[in-house]
Amino acid sequence: MTLLARTKARFRQASKSLGASAVGALTVGMLRTTRYFDPIKTADLFARIAQLIGPRLREQRIGRDNLSAAFPEKSPQEIEAILAGVWDNLGRVGAEFAHIDKIWDYVEEHPEASRIELPDRTYELFHQLRLDGKPALIFASHLANWEMPALAAVAHGLDAAILYRKPNIASADRIIQEMRQVNMGTLIPAGRNAPLQLAEALRKGQHVAMLVDQWWSNGVEVTFFGRKTRANPTLARLLRQVECPVHGVRIIRLPNHRFRAELSEEVKPVRDANGDIDIQGTMQAITSVIEGWIREYPEQWLWLHRRWR
User: Fold this and answer.
1) Which residues lie below 8 Å from residue 47, measured CB to CB, with a gap of 6+?
2) 207-211 and 186-189 strand pairing
3) 97-154: per-residue pLDDT in tens?
4) Contact indicator for 207, 158 with CB cutoff of 8 Å
5) Distance between alpha carbon 51 and the CA centroid of its chain, in Å?
6) Under DSSP, is residue 118 helix (H, G, I), strand (E, B) or coil?
7) What are the φ/ψ torsions at residue 208 (nearest 5 degrees)?
8) What is the pTM of this model?
9) pLDDT of 271-281, one tens digit each?
10) Per DSSP, which regions of the chain are E strands?
11) How far is the C-alpha of 181 from the C-alpha of 150, rounded, in Å?
12) C-alpha torsion sign, points 301, 172, 91, 126
């Protein structure tokens, strides 16, 4: 490599590091500052800002293409209305994250006065999971506020281990971990050792939870909204090691800054001719549950990433 080439490479690396540091500092500053303001008013403000800025970003085109392919029967006007809701939801998630230690507002003795709504069946299933002495696998998706299922688990005494993806920027990762660790149980970062840690958590009787609705380059092929994509097979592989109940959890954003939390009935795994867990078939069953959720509330899912490639 010539001196000029080395100099250019070092300059690019330095610029990248400076850019990451600036973004990290901005993220830390925004999260810390947002905590000083009223959470509901801040969520409204962030939603308006996201709806203003979002359509000017390249993610708008990604979201539009995804929605048009997933819902070919919808008009362009309907697609744009869903996209507006997607940006609204994303802005609210950003504001709510700064208040993550306070956002789960559910009092069992006075559910009518709570910000969270729990259907009776969800209440029954949750306490069954908490008291049966068994491990369980819980899957979730990027619907409404996807941080809240972990909050619910810990708030109501469920021993949970949560798989999460670390931000690429170290300074942002530190503050996000600080906020999450307040009341999110055991946090396990995605990586090479994660499957071993998750399997060990199950063997200890913990409830292992993870988001499973993003593209996974080394994943198994599944059909999602009529198109082939790839799903992270970790959950099904864990099930092969430690057989246990599998449930899905979703948060639904309601009017007046309220939420409904729903826990699905047990999702039965698919088995092969030998009776073993079929990895691809089980992930397809889980993906189909998530698709059903999204069809009900398409404006609350994160359509802005490349789920199909």
Assistant:
1) 87, 88, 89, 91, 92, 95
2) unpaired
3) 888 878 888 887 887 788 999 999 999 999 999 999 999 999 999 999 998 988 888 8
4) yes
5) 21
6) coil
7) -100, 130
8) 0.86
9) 999 999 999 99
10) 116-117, 136-140, 160-164, 186-189, 207-211, 220-224, 227-231, 246-254, 258-263
11) 10
12) positive
What's the first-to-final CA gap in the chain, in angstroms? 35
**Helix count and strand count (H, E) for the chain:** 10, 9
Residue at 101: amino acid letter: D
Q: Distance between CA 16 and CA 123 in Å, rounded?
A: 48
Hunting for tokens 């362009």 — which residue is that?
Answer: 76
Q: Which two tokens stand for residue 88?
A: 């609204």
**Three-class secondary structure of residue 137 per DSSP:** strand
Burial class (CB in 10 A: 0-12, 13-18, 19+), 18: exposed
CA dist 220 and 215 (Å) reads: 10
Which of 106, 206, 146 lies closest to 197, judged by CA?
206
Contact 77, 84 (CB under 8 A): no
